[in-house]
Amino acid sequence: MPKVRRKRLTTAKKRPTTARKRPTTGRKRPTTTRKRLNQPKKLSTKATTISNQPMKAVYFDLVNQPNVSIKSKSTGKFIQLSKPPKNLKVSDDWDVQPGDVLSWSEFRPTETFFVTSEGTLLKNPDTSGSGYLTIPFAITSQFSDAIDYFSSVLDSIGRNYVSSIELTSNDSFFVKKFSKELPKSIKNRTDISYSFDPNDEVLYVTIESNPNQSQQFQLETTKIEDIIQWISTSNETKTKFIVKYNFEGKETCSKVPCGIIMGLPPGWQSEQQGSLLVSENKIQGEWKCEGPEKTKEKAQKAIEKHYKGLEIEIK
């Protein structure tokens, strides 16, 4: 997966119970193919739902509230759980449901577990490699609207401590965010993974057979057609441009177009690289534009048109 430009890492400390500021050093997203842990069978075309998703997952903080979290079904009293069971089995007497999250973590959710439909505990797979929470496909595939189902968990743990929520192609996320579903031909593919970063509002789409074929889509500027087009051209030979700009002067800066580069051919994406400087008198930064090699000339013309009358460097 592509690296996330986020600064988060700090030295370990106990998780505060009040509002938390985002850590300040970077975490990286893995670039190798992820194996979907305990993936249920026959989930490629239709997600399995539990009781039509009538409720939301519950987050149990067993560090700060070890004695007032999980109740006994038989007695109605709270159960004391100071650590996860060695066999990672969920007792039939625990009042928990599949998808619930049990945390024995001091700071980052490194010792956080999901209740599975098989009555076991699945440890946070942490695809960030830095101790953040990954809500894996093996769990989300059981729910039709994973973002909504785990919204209370995100609120409890803090979105800045969640690296990704892995989604099925049938998740309600696509209709909610893009107003339409993915086409059936794409839904039926089992070689594509979808991962949502709730903190940066980015959807990552990866061709699992070739992890280098991965693209990030900012929700604010993405249409479902952009995702479909990228997937349809993912096997084509790719090329890229680096577009550098350094505009100075109030009059010049007032003419600089805002937002991503518009008018690129189908299958092309533009992504901001490095730091961006924006002020009334100076705008400096660079784009990486990548897409099918066969439309390279059209892409260059689109870039030049986007910055018409302004001096840029394309290489």
Textual characterization of the structure:
The protein is an alpha+beta fold. It has 2 domains: about 170 residues, no CATH class; about 80 residues. Helices cover about 15% and strands about 25% of the residues. The strands form 3 sheets. It has a 5-stranded mixed sheet with strand order 5-6-7-8-9. Strand 8 and strand 9 form a beta hairpin. The two termini are about 25 Å apart.
How would you summarize this macromolecular structure in one to three sentences?
By secondary structure, the protein is an alpha+beta fold. The chain has helices at 137-140, 146-149, 151-157, 173-178, 184-187, 224-232, 250-253, 296-306, and strands at residues 59-61, 101-103, 112-115, 121-123, 133-135, 162-167, 192-197, 202-207, 214-218, 238-248, 269-278, 282-292, 312-314.
Helices, strands, pairings?
Blueprint: E1 59-61, E2 101-103, E3 112-115, E4 121-123, E5 133-135, H1 137-140, H2 146-149, H3 151-157, E6 162-167, H4 173-178, H5 184-187, E7 192-197, E8 202-207, E9 214-218, H6 224-232, E10 238-248, H7 250-253, E11 269-278, E12 282-292, H8 296-306, E13 312-314
Number of helices: 8
Let me know the average pLDDT: 84
Distance between the termini: 24 Å
- The proportion of strand residues reads 15-25%
Total domain count: 2
Radius of gyration computed on alpha carbons = 22 Å
How would you sum up the major sheet?
Answer: 5 strands, mixed
Question: How are strands sequenced across the largest beta sheet?
Answer: 5-6-7-8-9
Helix content: 10-25%
Number of strands: 13
Task: Give, in order, the helices and strands.
Answer: EEEEEHHHEHHEEEHEHEEHE
Structural class: alpha+beta
Which consecutive residue ranges, at least 5 long each, have pLDDT under 50?
1-51
Shape: elongated
